[in-house]
Recover the amino acids of this structure.
């Protein structure tokens, strides 16, 4: 009494791709269908993410791909040497589960996912080399682990303090070395003209981000925070010229939407500044819960978005060495990562964003296992209390299962903001 | 000729199997449990005896199993469905080879059973808290999609896009997820495929608790759903063995045990 069924079974890579496609399409569908009609110009980004994560489309076949493990590697230098920077920070639960075999259970899901992604060797735009800034403990150790999988990984020394002159000089030396190493690997000299051009191109990309952000200061907010996360996330891996084109179109459309008084949120949606561990596609769990709870994210303070674009490079003299030093300064001094001993800049930035974007409250997410954000929670909460700003602290991870409990907490916070607004 | 009967009274269906003294399958019958287990079990047995054209007196020994086993007082013996499932599976999979892991999806629970080299149960895990990842979950999904349960397999293989995952474990919340997807004009096929993968992932977690050992056997009504089988195989990355009559493995096992018990009790 038996029969054998004959289906072909997926390979491990096919299975991983399907899992990721399923995660990706779920989030994209929610963004497209779960809220008011998004700007037309968002279609570029929806399609980009679907192509890359559901159809495994490679974007940079012919180029040398330079993987970066964190935000502190200057893209300007990579572009000037004709490489393509690809940021390897990962948001997939599928990859998080793969990474769990290599890292402690309580490790940060972002690090686990990034490690899992590289461990699987199943990458569409596989990096030819990886630069790993020694930022937090987990990322630092992850670099070594990833090297053991057979990748060419180079540590880029990064200081844990940023206010001293020693740290400034320290990181300048690191970036000089990084630039020399990459230049050697690419077999090219870093030219003044090209570096100046790439600084100005990234600067233009930053200016587009600022224009998009400015629209969100308006009373009617023309774009959801989740859509903005998608836009900034695309900068991790997209062809920069395409990204710039798409953002220009988005700027035009948002300008019109502001004129037409189109609001992406609800009539009385409280305005939220999001901060903490970075939401990286498709882990938009908390941002989606927030905007699903009738609030709207008007600004963020995260390394996947605002921190990547906020500060521009200030160059004194347009010589290669001076430009490299200025880049090093920008990537160190402007950084508000909680790994630094003192990080008052971050608190200042959050308060600034609350004021400039007329926000009603702050939501602070820390990934369970992301020690530095967990540690800094206390000082940020105290500072917000002092400034009279409502804040909600949430700890969460990449697993899709505990949405019910989380949304109850977020909803209650949003409701308290609504009541506060009513009583003003 | 002596006959032996295994009666498996489950939450959703009553499964009866009759075998001969050589443990060969003579016949089986499945009917809905309905509200009166006891009455329907008798009726089903009578129908099967009539169909096989044998006399009630030829039945030497009856073993009852399943949730409702204790209600069937005429049985000579009753055993748990875990043991019966293991015995039945080992016998049904003889030609396939040795089986070490059994996945069973029933109407209202799902199980993973791990066997040793002798076919004895060494460990098992059960999802007994709610209907997540069970036949009832499939029923509810099919109902929401307004298709028959038997259509699920074909629909699965006709899915062209990315399977749309259902994150809610709860059948009640899953319903609202499905309705949301339908409302946005997603294809029934992609949703069906997503439902299958969601169940498969949950089942794999259960199987991992007892350890995945080569030689995997899948039974219970949902094993008739080729789409779900495909999803479980993909999630496991391994082939699984499906018996010809996946619903009656457990009653078959009970009947086999009946043969052994009978000859043990009546040995010369």
């Amino acid at each position: 009494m038996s029969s054998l069924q004959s289906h072909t079974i997926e390979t491990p890579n096919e299975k991983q791709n399907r899992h990721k496609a399923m995660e990706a399409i779920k989030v994209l569908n929610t963004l497209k269908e779960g809220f008011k009609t998004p700007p037309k110009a968002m279609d570029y980004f929806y399609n980009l993410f679907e192509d890359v994560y559901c159809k495994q489309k490679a974007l940079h076949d012919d180029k040398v791909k330079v993987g970066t493990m964190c935000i502190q590697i200057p893209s300007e230098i990579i572009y000037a040497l004709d490489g393509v920077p690809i940021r390897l920070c990962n948001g997939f639960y599928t990859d998080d589960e793969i990474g769990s075999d290599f890292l402690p259970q309580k490790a940060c899901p972002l690090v686990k996912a990034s490690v899992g992604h590289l461990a699987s060797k199943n990458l569409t735009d596989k990096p030819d080399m990886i630069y790993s800034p020694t930022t937090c403990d987990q990322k630092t150790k992850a670099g070594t682990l990833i090297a053991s999988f057979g990748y060419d990984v180079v540590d880029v020394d990064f200081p844990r303090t940023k206010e001293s002159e020693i740290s400034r000089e320290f990181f300048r030396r690191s970036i000089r070395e990084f630039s020399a190493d990459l230049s050697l690997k690419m077999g090219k000299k870093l030219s003044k003209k090209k570096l100046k051009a790439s600084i100005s191109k990234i600067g233009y990309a930053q200016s587009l981000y600022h224009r998009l952000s400015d629209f969100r200061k308006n009373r009617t907010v023309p774009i959801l925070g989740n859509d903005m996360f998608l836009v900034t996330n695309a900068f991790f891996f997209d062809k920069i010229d395409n990204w710039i084109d798409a953002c220009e179109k988005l700027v035009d459309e948002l300008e019109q939407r502001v004129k037409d008084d189109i609001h992406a949120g609800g009539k009385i949606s409280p305005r939220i500044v999001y901060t903490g561990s970075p939401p990286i596609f498709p882990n938009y769990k908390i941002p989606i819960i927030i905007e699903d709870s009738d609030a709207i994210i008007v600004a963020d303070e995260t390394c996947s978005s605002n921190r990547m674009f906020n500060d521009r490079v200030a160059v004194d003299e347009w010589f290669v060495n001076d430009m490299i030093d200025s880049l090093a300064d920008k990537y160190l001094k402007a950084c508000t990562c909680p790994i630094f001993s003192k990080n008052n800049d971050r608190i200042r930035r959050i308060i600034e964003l609350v004021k400039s974007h007329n926000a009603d409250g702050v939501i602070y997410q820390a990934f369970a296992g992301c020690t530095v954000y967990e540690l800094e929670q206390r000082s940020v909460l105290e500072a917000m209390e002092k400034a009279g700003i409502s804040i909600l602290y949430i700890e969460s991870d990449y697993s899709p299962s505990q949405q019910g409990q989380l949304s109850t907490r977020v909803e209650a916070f949003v409701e308290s903001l609504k009541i506060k607004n009513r009583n003003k | 000729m002596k006959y032996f009967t295994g009666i498996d009274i489950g939450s959703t269906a009553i499964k009866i199997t009759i075998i001969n003294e050589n443990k060969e399958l003579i016949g089986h019958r499945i009917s809905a449990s309905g509200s009166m287990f006891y009455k329907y079990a008798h009726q089903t047995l009578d129908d099967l005896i009539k169909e096989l054209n044998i006399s009630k007196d030829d039945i030497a020994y009856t073993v009852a199993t399943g949730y409702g086993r204790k209600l069937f007082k005429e049985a000579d013996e009753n055993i748990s469905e875990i043991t019966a499932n293991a015995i039945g599976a080992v016998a049904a999979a003889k030609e396939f080879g040795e089986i070490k892991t059994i996945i069973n999806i029933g109407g209202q629970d799902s199980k993973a059973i791990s066997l040793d080299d002798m076919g004895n149960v060494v460990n098992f895990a059960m999802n007994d808290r709610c209907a997540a990842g069970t036949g009832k979950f499939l029923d509810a999904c099919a109902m929401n999609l307004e298709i028959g349960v038997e259509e699920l397999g074909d629909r699965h293989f006709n899915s062209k896009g990315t399977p749309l995952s259902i994150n809610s474990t709860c059948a009640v919340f899953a319903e609202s997820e499905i309705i949301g997807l339908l409302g946005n004009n997603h294809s029934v096929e992609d949703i069906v495929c997503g439902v299958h993968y969601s169940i498969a992932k949950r089942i794999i977690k259960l199987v991992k608790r007892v350890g995945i050992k080569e030689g995997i056997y899948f039974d219970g009504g949902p094993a008739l759903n080729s789409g779900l089988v495909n999803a479980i195989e993909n999630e496991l990355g391994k082939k699984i063995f499906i018996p010809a009559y996946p619903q009656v493995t457990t009653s078959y096992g009970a009947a086999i045990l009946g043969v052994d018990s009978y000859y043990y009790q009546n040995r010369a």
DSSP finds 16 helices and nine strands in chain A.
